[in-house]
Design a protein that fits this description.
Layout lengths: L15 E7 L10 H10 L1 E12 L16 H9 L2 E9 L9 E8 L2
Parallel strand pairs: 1-2
Antiparallel strand pairs: 2-4, 3-4
Length: 110
């Protein structure tokens, strides 16, 4: 089944034990980030996990893009949606050492 992330997905609300978000949010303009973060968070079931892999920027200054790397304030919105940050790993790749990437694991506690 295919869904529209911008549409209401009430049947999928808190239905998934594992949600994987890899580089999708950073491909979207800043003006839709809060809405997408809220909608993505709603998929995570009680005791479920959300795994995010994304580029990170070190300031709140709007970035050049696309892709538009996420800020820590944007990532903190996942916690405002009821998710708890379990683990955060920062890394760089050999191919693009100038870009910082984060791997974040969140969990929804019931």
């Amino acid at each position: 089944e295919v869904g529209d992330l911008f549409a209401e997905n009430e049947p999928w609300r808190k239905e998934f034990d594992f949600v994987f978000e890899c580089h999708t949010i950073q491909a979207l303009p800043l003006k839709v980030r809060s809405e997408i973060i809220e909608k993505t968070s709603q998929f995570v079931a009680n005791n479920g996990q959300l795994l995010i892999i994304t580029r990170i920027r070190d300031s709140e200054t709007p970035p050049q893009g696309p892709p538009w790397a996420l800020s820590m304030n944007e990532l903190n919105e996942f916690e405002k949606q009821g998710l708890i940050l379990i683990e955060k790993q920062q890394f760089k790749t050999k191919e693009m050492p100038e870009i910082t990437t984060l791997r974040l694991e969140y969990q929804r506690k019931d």
